[in-house]
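Researcher: I've been going back and forth with a colleague about how Permease might be arranged in three dimensions. Neither of us has a model we trust, so I'd like an independent prediction. The organism is Salmonella enterica I, in case that matters for your notes. Sequence below.
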Amino acid sequence: MVSINLIRLYGGLIIGQPGSADFAHPTSIILSLGTILITLIFALAFSGILRQLAVMFGLLAGTLLGMALGSTDFSGVSHGPLFSFPQLLPFGWPIFDLSASLPLLIYAVISMAEATGQTIATAEIVNSTQNVQQAIPRTIRGDAVMSLLGGIFGTSLIITSGENIGVVRTTNVKSRFVTAAAGGLLILIAIFAPLVRLATCLPGSVVCGTAVIVFSIIGVIGIDMIAREPLHTPGKTYALAMGLAMGMLPILVPGLYQNFPAGVQMVFGNGMAAGTLTAILVNSLFNWSEKRTQARVKS
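Model: Here is an independent structure prediction for Permease. You can compare it with whatever you and your colleague have in mind.
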């Protein structure tokens, strides 16, 4: 569900807004498909560490293709300050506003649903020996702490990033020290302003093409996990079926909940949240029903 939802999102970014002058422009589509094709060529041609870097090579080659097609402009990289530091409490001291907190609570529930699936997928990829049921709440608590600290610098809620799952699978790099080093590099990049401006100059279609590859790999991971799960029991069958139904509906039928209250749209209009919460609820109901049946048989 994470994969399908994100592919739809980034696919929409590739073609742009309906009605705009550059909607579904051939250049954007060519850049995206070209990036995907080049990444595949690198993955086929290389082995070992070079194959692990196929996604990065595809991104760089796609950017060069964008330059050749005139879709890239690096003139703004040299303009501006050399360093840029975050401002503490840019929106002033925090205050409690109930009307503003309620939508954030709904968003937090959606984020927790996404974090659950992403934590399970990551544990599966890295062959973690930890208890996933214990790792999930720890991950969510970590997101909460980082969101609290991030708020000091004016950021939004910190959530687990779905594309990182695909990157781990693609590169096969599973070291947490590499993850920590990547986080340190991101901090340095954020402070060194020219690198930030350089990143913003990358063609959006190229970035989206790379993202589609990564998110598709997440879908493959999900299919592999489902294939190894016995689904012969009614509870698991209905939980998966109902989760897919509720998750796919807002993706396949945009605007399905547009006439519902904003809170309903926020939860059920998000395929990942609707699908995950539905699957959890249905599975819990079947487990409760089976336990009641077993208790009656014993009595």
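Researcher: What would you highlight for our discussion?
Model: I'd start with this: The chain has 13 helices and no strands. After that, consider the following. The chain has a mean pLDDT of 85.
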